[in-house]
Every structure is written in C-alpha cells, then in structure tokens.
Amino acid sequence: MNRHERDTLSSSNKAQQVAARFFPFQMMDVRIREIHANLYAPAEEEEPEPSIDLLVEADEPNTDEEFSVRLLFDAQHVGIEDERFSLSVILEGYFVPIVEPQTIDQQVAQRFKTGDVVMVLWPYLREAVHNITQRMQIDMPLLPIITPQQSSSQDEEASE
Question: Which of 79, 81, 92, 105 is 20 to 30 Å from the Cα of 20, by its Cα?
Fold first, then answer.
C-alpha cells in the first residue's frame, strides 16, 4: 500500500468515526403504518377551518437495540372549493445503532430521535402523501423539502 492509499484509507476511517459519533444510527426499514383519507362533497354550510399537523413519536431512548420512530402527518379539511379532503398518514422508520451501543452519547441519541429523524423520514412521508393525493385525483402541491437549516431552526424554536 502506497502513502496516498494509506492516507486515503486513514481519512476515510476518520470520516466514518466522526459520522458515527454524530449520526450513530442506520435506518433498516421504513413503512406506512396507517392511512386515513376522505374526500368531502362540497358543503353548503360553513366548513371547519383547515389544519395541518406533524408529530414525531419515538420509542423511549434506548441505544442498545433497534428502535422505531413514527411521523404522524394530519391534514384536515384542506383543499379548495369542491376538492376538500382530510388525510392522516403514520410513517414508521426502524433504526439500529452502527457503533457499539455503550459509546453512544444519550444526548446524541435523543437529538436523533426527536430532530434528525425528521430529515431521514421526511422524503418517504412526502412521497407517500403525494402518491395518495394523486391516486385520489386531488390537485395538491408537493410537501416542501426540509433542509438541515430549517430543521435546526425549528429545533431551536421548540426548545425556547
């Protein structure tokens, strides 16, 4: 092995160590756990106000085995005029540690399960909502992309 190969291997190992320290979990599976969808006929009376909510539920912090995290997306009475609908989706991701469990900092595990996981699961939820609304022939724009900057600013706002 020449010096360049050794340096490349060494920097690759360092990068993996740093990544594992800050993101010590790997997603093994993701699945839709539950879906509820309703199309509403145009109402002649006053309709309820539209609402859209996103909730994150995680198993109790436990770093020595797999755990699951659920994203609950709930949109009630949204849409325009004769295309109002309600849609609830529960998406669940299964994660395992990629480092020795005893080396995982509990704060890092908690941050992952309450914040970082949204970044990991959001594209799957976004695709599921888009696919369901398309099959229901509802003209709904795609859910937005969440960037790490948006996620970290939302975490800061929630902690205040």
Answer: 92
Residues 6+ apart with CB under 8 A from 67: 58, 59, 94, 95, 113
| Of 155, 75, 85, residue with least CA distance to 119 | 155
Q: What is the pLDDT of residues 104-148, one digit of tens each?
A: 888 888 888 888 888 899 999 999 999 998 998 887 778 888 876
Taking alpha carbons only, the member of 29, 25, 111 closest to residue 63 is 25
Domain that holds residue 90: 21-159
Where b means 16+ CB within 10 Å and e means fewer, 56-65 reads eebeeeebee
Residues 6+ apart with CB under 8 A from 34: 88, 89, 90
125: CB partners within 8 A, 6+ apart = 71, 73, 89, 91, 143
For 96-105, give one letter per residue: b (16+ CB within 10 A) or e.
ebebeeeebe
